Amino acid sequence: MIVRFGYVAMSTVVKNASPSKTMTMASFTKLNNRDAAIRKLERIAAENLHNTLRLLKHNRAYDIKVYRFSSKLIPLATHADLTDWDPFIALKDDFADVGKYVREHGMRVSFHPDHFTVLSTPRPEVLQNSIRDLQHHVQMLDAMGLNAMAKNNIHIGGAIKISKRLPHGLKKIFEGLIREFKSA
After folding, report:
1. Contacts of 40 (CB under 8 A, 6+ apart)
2. pLDDT of residue 169
3. Can you give the pLDDT at residue 179?
4. CA distances (Å), 143 to each of 73, 92, 158, 171, in order?
5. Chain mean position to CA 3
6. For the chain, what is the radius of gyration of the CA atoms?
7. Angstrom distance (rounded) from CA 88 to CA 183
8. Which residues, 6 or more positions from 133, have their beta carbon under 8 angstroms from its beta carbon?
9. Which residue, 37, 83, 169, 180, is the most exposed by fewest CB within 10 angstroms?
10. 3-state SS record for the chain
């Protein structure tokens, strides 16, 4: 068995390289110009992707081949008030650069959507938000041109056993996700 160590998103060694810079919806709204606010989100996201590439280059220099991307590469990407915004248009080249570097250097990368991404929930609104969040992560991997070797890791379960809440429902949810992602 080959064991490879990596790390999650942030480096304590590479300075000023956060791949998770963000903007709150309150800050977005305070700008009073939606187009300007969206451009600011896109600049922050481009900087996050640039810093991700810096971290990947650092990783290569130190033979670190496993890396978990920040789920916060694009601030507010899944916010309900921004469903009409497609950040991937403006960030196409930035995502492509990250993906190209990963492929060229045989790195193993993944995402781990936040803890509120819960597929085993009995609450329909939480499930819908979780699916939207997973779709966003798949879109980011697709924008990088990464195949199924790049993963989205999610937790299943929680405090209440799945078998008591969703004995057959989780299988249906997964089957629906597979169909949805195949058609995307």
Report:
1. 23, 28, 31
2. 65
3. 66
4. 12, 7, 31, 28
5. 24
6. 17
7. 18
8. 78, 113, 114, 116, 117
9. 83
10. CCCCCEEECCCCCCCCCCCCCCCCHHHHHHCCCHHHHHHHHHHHHHHHHHHHHHHHHHHHHCCCCEEECCCCCCCCCCCHHHCCCCHHHHCHHHHHHHHHHHHHCCCEEEECCCCCCCCCCCCHHHHHHHHHHHHHHHHHHHHCCCCCCCEECCCCCCCCCHHHHCCCHHHHHHHHHHHHHHHC
pTM for the model? 0.88
CA distances from 138 to 40, 78, 178 (A): 23, 13, 12
Cα–chain center distance at 129: 14
Q: Are 91 and 46 in contact (CB under 8 A)?
A: yes
All structural domains of the chain: 6-183 (3.20.20.150)
115 contacts 72 by C-beta, under 8 angstroms? no
76 sits in the region (left: phi over 0; alpha: psi -120 to 50; else beta) called: left
- Mean pLDDT, 10 residues at a time, over the chain (184 residues)? 86 94 97 96 98 98 95 95 96 98 96 85 84 92 92 72 56 70 54
CB atoms within 10 A of CB 95: 25
Distance CA 16, CA 50 (A): 11
